[in-house]
Amino acid sequence: MKKKILLGLSGSVACSKSELFVNNYSEIYDFKILSTFNGLKYLSDEFLNAYSVYSDWDDFPGSPHIELARWADEFVIYPASANIISKISGGIADDLLTSTVLMYSKPIYICPAMHEEMYLNSQISSNLITLSKNHLIAGPRYGNLDIGDKGLGRLIEPNEINDWISKAKGKVIVTSGPTVEPIDDVKVISNKSSGKQGRAIAIELNSKGYEVIYIHSSLIQPIPGIKNKTFNTSDELFSVISSEMKDTESVFMTAAVSDFILNKTDGKLSRSNGKLNLELIPNKDIIASIKTEFPDVKCIAFSAQVDDDLNFDKLKSKNVDYLVINNILKNEFGSDENKISIINRDELIYKSGTLSKDEIAQAILINLDYWYVRWRRDNLEQYV
To answer: CB within 8 A of 378, min separation 6: which ones?
Structure first.
């Protein structure tokens, strides 16, 4: 499930960055957009045609300020003009945006954008100090401003506000997709993994505030707004994971790693040479190697099986913390649904029915939450 972002826009030429924020991150966030009447003047026709932007009470059925405030996981005012900052600071509720601000019960991300002289004005400074007691002030930056000016007052970039709202928790690695092992310079062996489950888990973790490193096969698409790294072979996958392990708390190993590799032949093997026998060499166990090298990191392995066996021996042999099991004879590679069981070292902790992969991602994280809190508490000294 995507994190729900209520995005407030006020009258500023920096609204162009608001458009970029929505366009760049709509795959990982569910946006609803509020704007002052002045904010509408700075939005492109293309953006207004592509998205619903609410500015009038009649734009949204029912009681919009109540429903929108209760709907949102996060409320971001980006950009926040001097005028909107002053209104919010004074508790004024004379339009849909400011009324929704008063209804929202959690801290709001307020992102100032204005000329330096306005930003340094004593009244604006006082208003921002007042707002900072209950809200999060993000920016501004020093840089290029309107009409060719330069100074302190530039709106932070879309990736910066994404960093603000997405990284409240720890760093997590999610691997996804198939490895591709070379036979020669042309041919490879691989598998049917689509990477859909890993992708869904990465998006769900991001929506919950984790810093996600999405390490995926070069054969599948990246996720906008999340740090992406790619791999082809299992050796490359191990190398990329290892390079990102600093400060990592958890690894979700959903990538489908080849059980076997070959001694690659240079050039191209030709059928004109007749029958060919390939020697398959057992591959190293990447997740077991990661757990051995980084024993304090929580590792969640995924096991594609041809039966429903709760494979405690496999979990223990890999020395991982959790094993997510799915029967590939019942859940085909590439499908949009899955059915899983989750075990820890002692017991079955969850068994699902047939669910979408987005729902499976939610179920995995919900059922690991209790265990994660306990693990974090037991290992608290390393974070002090």
So the answer is: none
Q: What is the pLDDT of residues 153-190, one digit of tens each?
A: 899 899 888 877 765 567 899 999 999 999 999 999 99
Same domain for 143 and 190: no
Is this structure's pTM higher than 0.70? no
23 and 115 belong to one structural domain: yes
Residue 141: give the domain boundaries.
3-166
**186 and 151 share one domain:** no
pLDDT, one tens digit per residue, over 118-151 is 888 889 888 887 887 778 788 788 888 888 888 8
127 in a domain, yes or no?
yes
Say how many C-beta atoms besides its own lie within 10 A of residue 304's C-beta: 17
